[in-house]
Structure of Ribose-5-phosphate isomerase A:
Amino acid sequence: MSNEMSPIDKAKFVAAKQATEYVTSGMKVGLGTGSTAAWLVQCLGEMVREEGLRIKGVPTSTRTAKLAREVGIEVITLDEAKWLDLTIDGTDEYDANLQLIKGGGGAHLQEKVVATASDRMIVIADASKKVETLGAFPLPVEVIPFGMQTTKALIEETLAGMDVLGQEVTQRQAGDDPFVTDEGNFILDLHLKRIGAPQTLSLALNQIPGVVENGLFLDICDTVIVGHGDGRVTVR
Ligand code: 5RP
């Protein structure tokens, strides 16, 4: 770990490092996506190369797959693994009940598929990700490109009847182009500010044809490892 690390990077690093304690040889591990998960992959790679750790990793994005291979982790597909011992991933928000919003990196579809195919999901985060109520972070919804405007209109209609504070829906961009996920889909970001009833919202969104998956991770995560800028770690 570099001494020149910013407090936020240090917080992410120490959370990731602590999460490696849950990983033992022989495990099949879901590898999350994002800057915090990237620290985890680096740390696990170091353990593979220098301590003889033997794991099989199932990445949740092409980015993570590339990094995992680069650092020496054996990469397999979810179908090859069938079931995982645990998944470790970052988050955009978590609340006191360990409910999450994910997908800031546009990978929540694979992340959710992998996490739900795991005995447990551990989240690693810096302390800024803790919220009283989910929704300050825009909720990502992955939609198929076909009929995207119609799907967007149906989402807006659905939001009108929900316990949320904001209802703006924007399409995620990558520069001048639409952001495209690993599955070839688009992302709509829902600027809700406050989500009063996440279960109801999640079910309603996923019932809309054209919606593939939303970024609410409800009753999936069992542990959150929180890193702090001074190097402390707390486990929830
Ligand atoms: C990617 C995610 C990430 O876990 C989330 O965006 C957190 O990213 P970071 O660790 O960079 O803050 O859900 O789809």
